[in-house]
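Person: At home tonight, work slowly through the protein below, taking as long as you need, and write a paragraph about the fold.
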Amino acid sequence: MQQAIPSSLPHALPLRARLARHPLVRIVAGTACVAVPLVATMMLVQALVPKEMRIAWHHLLAAALCLAGYRFYVRRFEQRDAGEAALQGAGPGLLRGLGIGAALSVVVAAVLAAAGALVVTGSSGWSAILKPLSEQAMVAVMEELLFRAVLFRIVEARWGTRTSLLVNVLLFALAHLPNEHITALAVLNTGIAGLALCAAWMLTRSLWLPVGVHFAWNYLYDGVLGIPVSGHAARGWLQVQMAGPEWLGGGAYGVEGSLVTFLAWSAAAALMLRRGVKRP
């Protein structure tokens, strides 16, 4: 007797369901679900809300909507709960990530200061520390959702960890090419940072460790040390002058264009990858 083919087999599914399972379709859908809420929120706020009323809340709203968009994608396309982006239990991973990111920032700044490539020339009011806080939180959440929760996770599940790491490093570096004052060393550093952030994801299979690392690095340079981040002008508390050759201080692009940053992020990536690949 011929056995009936179960309807749950992939070739028995409707075309629409098969397309929804394809990794490239899922990457596009996940990217759209994360990016569209952010872009729409920022455009609407700029068009409808006076500038003096845009203080912190719109960045936090955009970050929350990005997170909600990712959860919607996971429920709709993957038909499961997005445990990797759950707020419950996020604290330990986030705090650990903040510690790693802060340690990287302090080490790089200390080496540059000792080499005479970073000189503090003054300071502004304490309120300057708060200005970049919400924006850097939004950037960290959005980029980690796009590059680690969507891109790295889906590519890894279909084509393996090595392929996923390579794709993520390349696309993360390419995404920063339009930034002003970028150099070849800055592109390399961005790729290495992407590798380390992927390793941070692999350690916990959760969003919050890489978010903490990403946020701490960006915020300490932008909000506290007043050093450009990825070519964007800093708004921080301290007024810092970068001296010495561009390969050492990073020039107008900031410390992400420095050889010291390459060494620090490479060490972090190696240590976290070594631990991450041992985890299932």
Remarks:
- DSSP finds ten helices and two strands in the chain.
- Residues 10-276 form one domain.
- Confidence is low (pLDDT under 50) at residues 1-8.
- The longest helix spans residues 133-159.
